[in-house]
Amino acid sequence: MATAPVSSDSPDRSHWEWQYLDLMRRIWEHGDERMDRTGVGTRSIFGAEIRFDLSQGRMPLLTTKRVFWKSASRELLWFLTGETNIRPLCAQGVEIWTDWPLDRYRRETGEEISRADFSKRIVGDEDFALRWGDLGPVYGKQWVDWPVYEPVGDGLYRKREHGVNQVAEVVESLKANPGSRRHIIEGWNVAELDAMALPPCHKTYQFHVAGNRLSGLLYQRSCDLGLGFAFNIWSLALLTRMLAQQCDLEPGEAVWMGGDVHLYLNHAPLVEEQLSRLPSGDARLEISRRPESIFDYAIEDFAVTGYEPQAHIPAPVAV
């Protein structure tokens, strides 16, 4: 297999992104090649870690290709609403989740509608969006409304109107009991996996306070390193920054841990191009205000400086 050479004696080997590039090279050259759920095939390893220092406003934005951090931020804010329909995302021009409902629509109707036309119809037709745009109880639903069932007698249970808001509970636990080991947001609701368009990949978040510094850790059961990782680590860092602000703490580290970490076989052009580039720059994030709650942030609250990305590298999404 051919990969472009990377200079191992680069003067900037201290740049955090070398962790990512080294992992990419390791997977591409030594990963286990296998067929997967999508039918595309991957090269995969099991178990990986990347750490990033969030102090002084630093944020983990890949520079060896452009990352659309505003789209990733809009997705995170969407999660925090508990929404499960792609309509609000499509209305903002964010198509991260469109491929899954589009694939279902094409299968069930036989209509080869384009992605752009499908998204336009989702935005313009509320009834169509209700029928075809819902993803099931994915991420945000579990984060802010994890279902709770109460006994009503004779072995019967009734679903409570409002479930557990894990995010709100973490905010309160960070303030009241910062030393707790239970600052966790969990997306892997076993009872509802079959109802989800895609079971959660970035499934478990845990937060840790040391002194006055808040660190966030994400365990990701499955990671598309070529496409998904850049958004995943950004979202982890952004959520940690938002929680730190809400709880009067300083940002600590973002710690990303992957289970099955893979590269798709049809991403060879992306991998080879990205491995030929050198990281540079030092992206920083400013949060312009402190909203009333963790749920009240808006995209306008975030501004990035010092980001010096190289050109975007397109690659297909495996559905």
What is the strand and helix layout of this fold?
Elements: H1 17-30, E1 32-34, E2 42-53, H2 69-81, H3 87-91, H4 99-109, H5 115-124, H6 126-132, H7 139-145, E3 149-153, E4 156-159, H8 166-176, E5 184-186, E6 202-210, E7 213-224, H9 228-246, E8 250-264, H10 268-274, E9 284-287, E10 302-305
Parallel strand pairs: 7-8
Antiparallel strand pairs: 1-2, 2-8, 3-4, 5-6, 6-7, 9-10
Helix pairs in contact: 2-7, 2-9, 5-6
| Widest beta sheet: strand line-up | 1-2-8-7-6-5
Instruction: Quote the average pLDDT.
Output: 94
The share of residues in helices is 25-40%
Poorly predicted runs:
4-8
How far apart are the first and last residues' alpha carbons, in Å?
A: 25 Å
CATH C-level category of the largest domain: Alpha Beta
CATH topology of the largest domain: Thymidylate Synthase, Chain A
The secondary-structure class comes to alpha+beta
Number of domains: 2
Q: Report the count of strand segments.
A: 10
Computed CA radius of gyration, to the nearest angstrom = 20 Å
Summarize this entry quickly.
By secondary structure, the chain is an alpha+beta fold.
